[in-house]
Amino acid sequence: MRILVVEDEHKIAAAIKKGLEQETYAVDVAFTGPNGYDLALTEEYDLILLDLMLPGMDGLTLCRTLRTKHVHTPVLMLTAKGQISDKVSGLDSGADDYLTKPFSFEELLARVRALARRPKSVLGNVLSVKGLKLDTMTYEVSYYGKRVLLSGKEFSLLEYLMKHPKQVLSKDQIIAHVWDYDADILPNTVEVYIKNLRNKIDVPFSKKRQPLIVTVRGFGYRLG
Ligand code: CA
Predict the structure, then answer these.
(1) Distance 107 CA to ligand 1 centre (A)
(2) What is the DSSP letter of 137?
(3) How far is the CA of 45 from the centre of ligand 1 (A)?
């Protein structure tokens, strides 16, 4: 899950970024409206957290303009306390949800999770592909009932693969959704993480089961 945070108050932006990264999300931050707009248009995000009052271009205009450009990334609008009319115009502009400042991080996370899973048919918080289960709330992963311990990035990568089962995903697509803009990506970064996942998921079951993580030569990877 990759998230864009557009927020001009540096302290708030830094706190949101840090908190979301602890939850294994990849996060980019923009401090002005135009910068946020450019990133939202050129990079692939799964969610945008958008402040209302921004230098250069306000959140409403930004959101409305994105929608006219057919960018339908879910937008969670951050509004100042009690600005009811802002909420209404926020939703009118094409935002998917709003959150009133000041908010607790728990509330922000709950909204982020709700929006992140909205387009997919997910049973509760648990993604399931064959015997593989991944809980996006508790971060527990199991394969045929056996617990699998993953690092944060391994978890994000597996979550992305599980949200697109049976689809061939290119390395570029994987990088765009699992790593943030500033991350140091080496040509073999994805391969390294895929290998880690295989060692933890497929290798222990290699005598009984077909591998779940499949390499599609020249294209990328497919789950299931
Ligand atoms: Ca602001």
Answers:
(1) 19
(2) T
(3) 21
**What percent of the residues of the chain are helix, what percent strand, and what percent coil, each to the nearest 5?**
40, 20, 40
Whole domain around residue 17: which residue ranges?
2-120
Task: Measure 68 CA to ligand 1 centroid, in angstroms.
Answer: 23
CATH number for the domain spanning 35: value is: 3.40.50.2300
This prediction has a pTM of 0.65
Contact 121, 29 (CB under 8 A): no
| 25 within 8 A of 48, measured Cβ to Cβ | no
Cα 34 to ligand 1 centroid, rounded to whole Å:
13
> How many residues appear in the chain?
224
Q: How many domains does the chain have?
A: 2
- Confidence band for 118, pLDDT divided at 50, 70 and 90: low
Query: Nearest 5 degrees, angle CA 15-CA 20-CA 21?
Result: 100
Note the pLDDT tens digit of each residue in 140-158: 999 999 999 999 899 999 9
Whose CA is closest to 91, among 117, 51, 60? 60
Q: Distance, CA 79 to ligand 1 centroid (Å)? A: 9
